[in-house]
């Protein structure tokens, strides 16, 4: 009997290969964008296919090749396979359409690096202007936080399942929160709780939608004037708003924490572990080889 | 996009690509572009008329063609009445096929068809539909990068649809260089002519401004003979950019000592576009600002007074169609 892989084994096996995507992309000095897209293609491919049907090695290379084209970082098939051992151009070209089809022809992938850059800019707006909010936080501190959060994404977001479970801005915030909880929390409070009493605002008609990451900084001047004029009648509104703001803030922090936890759950797969699974996988991919082996053994026993 | 109609998840994919072909019939060739042949066909299950864009192979030895991939990538993300609909994708043994809604006419054909008269209401209607389509692209951070009358297709019900996303790309990865060798020459914005490596949706807005002019003139507005001539033609018509009207223009890679032409006066523009109202001229001027940061974006263009003054934009179904004469050579060809 062919022993099939368990889902756990399959996941372990894929984690091992996911890491190879990063190595491959780094080898070709491909930009982060390509790396992230290739990893996403690879994961999505195995959501609908099994390693017992398609061996991950060439699928991985195909994903890198396709991602490079899709992200406008073209590399010719010849120079690509020249650097790969035991893989020929035809292997990749034959798989390319199959991969594209498994992706349901969806090539655009939204990565957390872009919202991360957006948050980097907004952190500056919220924490440094008009005057610094934290005595020890400057542009340099934030630049440093941004860079370390980028490393965090490379380390934890590329290979884990978070991209299937959280939105890109949530993942970006998780990276920042886990990198520097104090600064990130201050930002979130200022942004979502409007912690400064004075700036607490009147609810304008039609302005009650969820505060999300894209909410623009509100015009403080006009709101202050509004407070003076309408203070009495809006006090109860005011409390409701405070309450929902707090709820949104808490939900967001809970989501971020959950994201961090899942991102860090992946433990690296060792080469040995992967080799073991590879062996098991071999016969699943090549059932005829197993039959031949059995026949040989039976023939020996006969004698 | 919906999954291919033939798809049934448990069947291995390699076996799936074959039968997909039978879902669509390819009947006759209706057009040919640089990297694709377009056929008219039907969706077998529904009888719906569709266009099949078969990507030429053999010209691209590196697997799936980049333009085809771009087209699939971006059309997948866009659903809008003024953007062509990608219905499905399938493969025949050596080809990638995009199944598109059938759009039998394009704006270039209408502009060249001298039998057809355009009213200001017609022009307004086409401009409005083009702007709505591009607004949808831009708010999804997608640049078209090849707007021209030939890529604005017309549906049987008169709706205009932006098509041909073979050059499109996503905007907004900071610090990333973009190629300035995009957009068909006559519709190429000045920052591209100067080789800018960073640009925005303003390049599409320029193209729309030039198309607006062409709709009124019925001949191409800035028909440069080559890339150098394009600069000359552009600035002769709209003035040579200086540091005053376009700060930092001289730091662009291909900015050169240019013949200095004066900005056209309002009266000059009035003479050039005799059918245009003052509001039409205002919009045209906003769309063809040399400095991309002063050019108006799709939101401002859509809110422009030109669209609310009389005459009203023509209802799409009442817009001019190809004259019958044009059909004749086509009909003959079909018989052969
Ligand atoms: N959906 C469609 N319905 C009907 N005809 C179409 C459709 N799409 C394209 N065509 C026809 O096929 C021609 C080529 O298509 P398209 O512009 O998409 O290809 P292309 O290779 O990008 O061309 P080019 O490089 O010349 O712009 C068009 O000019 C048009 O006449
Ligand atoms: Mg075209």
Automatic annotation (TrEMBL), chain A:
Residues 202-245 are annotated as: Disordered. This is Cyclin-like domain-containing protein. One of its GO terms (biological process) is nucleotide-excision repair. One of its GO terms (molecular function) is cyclin-dependent protein serine/threonine kinase regulator activity. Keywords: Cyclin. GO terms for cellular component: transcription factor TFIIK complex. Residues 19-101 form the Cyclin-like domain. Belongs to the cyclin family. InterPro entries: Cyclin-like_dom, Cyclin-like_sf, Cyclin/Ssn8, Cyclin_C_2, Cyclin_N. Residues 221-236 have a biased composition (Basic and acidic residues).
Automatic annotation (TrEMBL), chain B:
It holds the Pfam family Pkinase. ATP binds at residues 30-38, 53. Residues 24-307 form the Protein kinase domain. One of its GO terms (cellular component) is transcription factor TFIIK complex. It comes from the Eukaryota. One of its GO terms (biological process) is 7-methylguanosine mRNA capping. One of its GO terms (molecular function) is cyclin-dependent protein serine/threonine kinase activity. Its EC number is 2.7.11.23. The active site is at residue 146. Residues 1-25, 311-336 are annotated as: Disordered. The keyword Phosphoprotein applies. Keywords: ATP-binding, Kinase, Nucleotide-binding, Phosphoprotein, Serine/threonine-protein kinase, Transferase. SMART domains: S_TKc. Belongs to the protein kinase superfamily. CMGC Ser/Thr protein kinase family. CDC2/CDKX subfamily. This is [RNA-polymerase]-subunit kinase. It comes from Spathaspora passalidarum (strain NRRL Y-27907 / 11-Y1).
